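Methods — Computational structure assignment.
A single polypeptide chain was analysed. Its primary sequence is given first, followed by the predicted tertiary structure written as structure tokens.
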Amino acid sequence: MKKVSILAFAAVAMLVSCNKAGDKANTTTEQQVAEQQGAVYNVDAAASTVKWTGTHKGGLNPRFGVVKAEGTVAVENNVVTGGKFTLDLNSLTTDEASVDPATSGGKKSTDLDGHLKSADFFDVEKYPTSTFEITSVAAFDAAKDQSVLEGATNVISGNLTIKDKTVNVTFPAKVTVTEGEVSLESKFTINRQDWGLTYGTEGDAKDWMISQEINIELNVHAKK
């Protein structure tokens, strides 16, 4: 029975790790922000979603939820030229379906909300928002670019600031521009430690048990 349990655990871990949730974002140092040229569209917060997923090592025990965002996107000649998005970290919410009190020692999704907002992670009392400012937008080249996102049209780079650390991230996206609306879709992963998001001190066993990767799924709609 013990052997069967170990094999089952290994199989689950392999299946989860092979299920790539998003493109791995490339990162570099902070870059110059692109000027927002052309018409400015305002993010429709009610119609937009920013989803996050975190797991334990091996992709086990996924926890997922949403955070609210607002901001602007600039478009000129049907091409996105720039944009700035602000994430309200006080709005961070864990989906109830991802936390089962029966297997989590009685803890609920709201307990994880409080933990993530505490000084252990985002420290929202001191850093209530996070920002993403576009630094460049390039056309997606299927000959050299790859993406898990079907129909990717662009490669977007931007400065992502979490707490007091800014890192430039690059990821594929599907951008659609119409007369009155801009939509942006993307699925990518970032390494939380690039922003110093660790649980406890470096090498702490509690932090080691948590995957360094955070999966982000964007579905942003902006209107004139």
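Note: Residues 2-223 form a domain with the Lipocalin fold (CATH 2.40.128.110).
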